[in-house]
Write a structure and sequence with these properties.
The chain has helices at residues 3-10, 18-21, 29-44, 63-67, 83-92, 146-159, 175-182, 213-223; strands at 51-55, 75-80, 100-104, 132-137, 160-170, 192-194, 197-199, 209-211, 225-231, 245-251. It has 253 residues and is an alpha/beta fold. It has one domain (3-9, 26-251): 3-Layer(aba) Sandwich (Rossmann fold), CATH 3.40.50.150. Helix 5 links the parallel strand 2 (75-80) and strand 3.
């Protein structure tokens, strides 16, 4: 076992400073990461040889538990629009830089990066076709508008290898989702309608976005992704793997 990996397994993961945790959701940084790792493992069936792309990696909450699972042929690339997250991961996580790489994309979003230079719908992923076996998109599409969602779905399908998998979370406005939103039983509230879905806050559209399944599922299919499982989240007031809805898809062409 390489020295860097022995060292990583022997110590607790570093925890980002408080100001970097504000944008990644509530809960204990390490425990939430371990729990999410378990869900991904169960739903997407992680392999030691997986080449993983984590789109919207934040301050590396998934990178650490993955470092103990991936073998020598496996690798991890994290991408985020917040440069401070990427810088912290590079400087503080202490993972093998040859196999655990972090990338900043200066994409404009009112919620995370209002001064970004690139629209989400115009951003080309900087990897060749078929570069990854598994793409993670946890709390990514919940912060993308429809045009960005369509584009990201196509880019994800492009960089996935044949039979590659996408593990993604969404707020899906099926009947139970609409009931939860209409009854004010959930947070975010999703009271503001847009084409193909609803927003929590129209002043900051990307703060939380929910999509109608009648639009979302065909959009993924047309991008080249076949949805193989949908697991409802407990934002709808029912048991679930995660707070958000979990979708597993595979590359279909």
């Amino acid at each position: 076992m390489p020295f860097w990996r022995k060292q990583a397994e022997a110590r607790k993961p570093p925890v980002p400073p408080e100001h970097l945790l504000l944008g990644v959701g509530p809960g204990d940084y390490c425990k939430v990461g371990e729990y999410a790792f378990g869900v991904i493992d169960k739903v997407a069936r992680l392999r030691a040889s997986d080449r993983i792309l984590d789109v919207g990696c934040g301050p590396g909450r998934m990178a650490w538990p993955l470092s103990a699972r991936l073998g020598r042929r496996g690798s991890y690339d994290g991408l985020d629009v917040v440069k401070a997250y990427v810088d912290w991961c590079k400087q503080s996580l202490g993972l093998d830089p040859e196999r655990f790489r972090f990338h900043h994309a200066d994409i404009r979003t009112k919620f995370y990066n209002p001064d970004g230079a690139i629209e989400a719908a115009d951003f080309g992923f900087p990897w060749k076709d078929g570069s990854f076996d598994l793409v993670l998109a946890t709390s990514l599409f919940t912060h993308l508008l429809p045009a960005g969602t369509e584009h990201y779905a196509r880019e994800i399908a492009r960089v996935l290898a044949p039979k590659g998998r996408l593990f993604a979370t969404f707020f899906i406005l099926d009947e139970s989702g609409k009931e939860a939103a209409a009854g004010g039983k959930t947070y975010p509230t999703f009271l503001h309608e847009i084409e193909h879905g609803r927003l929590h806050d129209p002043a900051i559209p990307e703060s939380a976005v929910a999509f109608e399944p009648e639009w979302l599922l065909p959009t993924l299919q047309s991008a080249g992704l076949t949805v193989t499982a949908v697991h409802s989240g407990h934002w709808k007031g029912r048991p679930g793997f995660e707070y958000q809805d979990v979708v597993l898809a595979t590359k279909s062409r």
